[in-house]
Design brief:
Layout (H helix, E strand, L loop, with lengths): L2 H5 L2 H9 L3 H7 L13 H11 L11 H13 L4 H4 L1 E2 L6 E2 L3 H16 L3 H12 L13 H11 L2 H13 L7 H16 L12 H7 L18 E6 L6 H8 L5 E3 H8 L8 H17 L3 E4 L5 H13 L3 E7 L3 H9 L7 H8 L12 E5 L7
Keywords: Nucleotide-binding
GO molecular function, one term: nucleotide binding
Protein name: HD domain protein
């Protein structure tokens, strides 16, 4: 099965593919808490959610692509439960902490292996990660901030529609209140102009600050006066970050962790403390001078990127993040031809846990599949 075939298979065809996958078989053997899921195991619930999707009032107005995204979200939204479920020894209740994050990683790996396009895959992955948020809107201190945040990370319309199907796709007696909460989600998002599109911040700096501040404002309109622009690269080893920079930012000075390892004679498997320290010093020199530059490293985890972004933002830089990800076979082939290839098992391990960047992290996000840009 490849992505082109699966994306045109409809609900029944996608379910027929999924039932043969190991992550689906694991769901069939994973029981849930009867208070929330009287229907039984995770796979039974998943099938019920898929059955509810075409019954949604808005289903007919969705594009084929949007329908496929929702079906795939249904398949993976609880796929992390077999990896996280645990029984409280005192109460006997079943919980699955952080199952949505595990489901996100499972979805990313499975869809990548199918050849699913990068943008489509990440929409599914973010919906999987945040699928539970609408039901708990009333617990948020600032509901308007919640819907604004999700409008940029997942998209409120599809998140709302999936949440309806998820709520209805179970056998639990009292479901009226949770569904009322979902309708509230839609109402708040519509009131703030972010149900069908991202929340309209005053400018990129306003959005950047909103996602960074402990007490953010939706209405602050900061003056944009950046001293320079930092182009932060992100991607697996061998993904083509150097190639992208050469083609798109050829005049920028580059602070590259790979180059600094060579300069210091440090192997990638050795302690990287000295390499990181030197990189920070080089970055500070450029930031103090107000000169735009590129920072080239894998930067695969949000936490890692965050430390560098804190540095750049502290000097008043505008930050653009460029994420490069060709198909995995192309990455592995390119890596083999490098002068200093990274062990293939390391790349595969990184591919199982990386976190592609989002618009919540930067002023501008560029996503590339590694193909040459058009004219």
């Amino acid at each position: 099965m490849n992505w082109e075939t699966l994306s045109n298979a409809g609900i029944d065809g996608i379910l027929a593919w999924a039932v043969e996958q190991p992550w689906a078989r694991a769901m069939a053997g994973c029981m849930q808490d009867a208070g929330w899921h009287a229907e039984g195991d995770v796979w039974a619930h998943t099938q019920m959610v898929c059955d509810q999707l075409p019954r949604l009032e808005d289903w007919e107005s969705l594009t084929v692509h949007e329908r496929t995204v929702l079906v795939l979200t249904a398949l993976f939204h609880d796929a992390g439960k077999p990896l996280t479920s645990q029984v409280d020894p005192q109460t006997g209740r079943v919980t699955s902490p952080r199952h949505a994050i595990k489901g996100e990683h499972l979805a990313r790996s499975a869809l990548r292996d199918l050849g699913c396009g990068l943008s489509t895959r990440e929409v599914v992955c973010r919906l999987v990660r945040f699928h539970g948020r609408p039901a708990f809107l009333l617990e948020r201190e600032r509901p308007e901030h919640e819907v604004a945040t999700m409008s940029w990370l997942a998209g409120n319309r599809l998140l709302y529609l999936f949440s309806l199907a998820n709520t209805r796709g179970r056998s639990t007696a009292e479901m009226g209140r949770p569904e009322d909460n979902l309708h509230l989600w839609r109402m708040v998002a519509e009131e703030h102009g972010c149900f069908e599109r991202p929340y309209p911040f005053a400018n990129d700096q306003a959005r950047f600050l909103f996602f960074r501040q402990s007490e953010p404002s939706l209405h602050y309109a900061p003056f944009e006066d950046h001293r320079c622009t930092v182009t932060m690269m992100s991607g697996l080893p061998g993904s083509g970050k150097d190639t992208w920079l050469a083609a798109n930012r050829p005049d920028l000075p580059v602070v590259s962790l790979d180059d600094l390892r060579g300069e210091l004679g440090v192997d990638p498997a050795d302690d990287q403390g000295g390499v990181v320290q030197l990189a920070r010093e080089r970055c500070r020199e450029l930031l103090r001078s107000g000169r735009s530059f590129a920072f080239n490293a894998t930067n695969l985890l949000r936490q890692t990127r965050g430390r560098w972004i804190d540095l750049f933002a502290g000097y008043g830089a505008r930050i653009e993040v460029v994420y490069v990800e060709p198909l995995l076979p192309a990455i592995l082939d390119r890596n083999r031809r490098r002068e200093r290839p990274v062990p293939e098992q390391v790349i595969r391990r990184l591919a199982g846990r990386y976190e592609p960047p989002t618009m919540a992290e930067c002023h501008r996000l560029i996503v590339s599949d590694g193909q040459p840009e058009g004219p």
